[in-house]
Each structure stands twice: as structure tokens, then as C-alpha cells.
Amino acid sequence: MKKLIKLLPVVLLVFFTSAFTVHKNSVENGYKIGDVAEDFSLKNIDGNMVSMADYKDAKGFIIVFTCNTCPYAVMYEDRIVALNKKYASKGYPVIAIMPNNIDVKPGDNLEAMANRAKSKGFNFPYLIDEGQQVYPKFGATKTPHTFVLKKTKKGAEVKYIGAIDNNYKDASSVTTKYVESAVNALLNEQDVLEKETKAIGCSIKV
Q1: Mean pLDDT, rounded, for 109-124
Q2: Which of 2, 19, 34, 95 is 20 to 30 Å from the Cα of 28, by its Cα?
Q3: What is the pTM (predicted TM-score) of this model?
């Protein structure tokens, strides 16, 4: 019995280390430029399930991992709304996904998400990544973290990963709009020049 008690801390350490390693590797092994993103089916704030396959006429997608509780994400909310307003009709709708563990961040639960979406006038789906199965596949690490996908014969191909623009503090002081530049290039059948930037925001809570 004493031996078992002595071994218990070691067993727990191995368990938690293994759990952390799996999570870390899942993020590190997220999508790279040129990869084809697997479709998902996630619950929207209205209770309906949403997937990329629902968008039959879309040319691609602006996938944004965001949340209610991160100050960086909050500063980008109006800009995300503007992105959907500008590009949804052109074939690149926004799909927002909330990736946080709501036990850690209860302010990001589905009810809070619905309230936030209503107060901010979200014009796009706001989905919850229950079980946190989707964001590791993308390799998202921050809120916000953005992925621009283009529909190709292979599937939804990743064309841009990173920040929305180069000034999270002040939209009026932005000099480079990374997501807009990427989508504009794709709409004009051109290569995206700046394919990856560093996402600035809060770490995703697990």
C-alpha cells in the first residue's frame, strides 16, 4: 500500500504530462498553407448545427476563432462584422468559432455568446467548439486567430493564417489589412502575397 501511495504522484505526473503533450502536438500539427481543412459541424447560438458544407455557393470562408472574454477579441468584433458585410455577398462569408473551455471561461458559454452576438449585431454564425475538437485541427492558438480558406477541387484549401490586420488597438490606425488583402487576391484569382502573420490575442483556454 505504501508503495502504491509513493507511486501515485509519479502516475499523476505522467498522466498530466501526456495530456499536455497530446494537446500541444495537436496544435503544432494544425493546418499549414495549402492544406485542405476538414469540415466541421458545430452548434450555432440559435441551436442549429452549422458546417462549411451548408454554404453551397461559397467560394471560400473567413474562419475566425474568437470569444466574448478576451479584450483583443472584443476590439476586433466590429471589424469581423465588417468583414462579413463586405465579403459574404462575394462568396467569402465569416464563420466565427468560440474555442475556449467554458468551465475555465464561463463568460464564453452558449447563452453568453448569444447575448454578445445580439448586442453587437453579429451577421454571421457564432459557433461553439464543444469538446474543443476543431480548433486544434486548425492549429489556432489565440482569440482572435483567422484562417482564410478557398474552395478548390481538393476541398477547402488554407490560403492565409494569422491576424486580421496590423493594429489590434485602433481600427482607424490600421495600415495593412491582412485578411482583406488575402480575400481580394483570391477573388481576383491571384496568389496571396502575405500568407502568414502572427496572431495577436489571448491564449485559448483548455
Answers
A1: 97
A2: 95
A3: 0.86
Quote the CA–CA distance of 139 and 29 in Å, as a whole number: 7
Helix (H) or strand (E) holding 206: none
> In 29-177, which residue ranges form alpha helices assigned H by DSSP?
71-87, 110-120, 135-138
In angstroms, the CA 26 to CA 168 distance is: 27
Residue the block writes with cell 484549401: 157
Is the Cβ–Cβ distance between 80 and 116 less than 8 Å?
Answer: no
pLDDT at 54 over 80: yes
In angstroms, what CA-CA distances link 69 with 29, 74, 84?
26, 7, 21
Q: What are phi and psi of 97, to 5 degrees?
A: -130, 130
Beta carbons of 113 and 68 less than 8 angstroms apart: yes
The CA angle 65-133-89, to the nearest 5 degrees, is 40
Burial class, 148, CB count within 10 angstroms (exposed 0-12 / middle 13-18 / buried 19+): buried
Cβ atoms of 196 and 33 closer than 8 Å: yes
Angle between helices 178-187 and 71-87 (to 10 degrees): 20
Q: How far apart are CA 140 and CA 204, in angstroms?
A: 8
Residue 66 phi/psi, 5-degree rounding, is -150, 175
* 26 neighbors 141 (Cβ within 8 angstroms): no
Orientation of helix 110-120 relative to helix 71-87, angle to 10°: 60
> Which three three-digit cell numbers place residue 18?
501526456
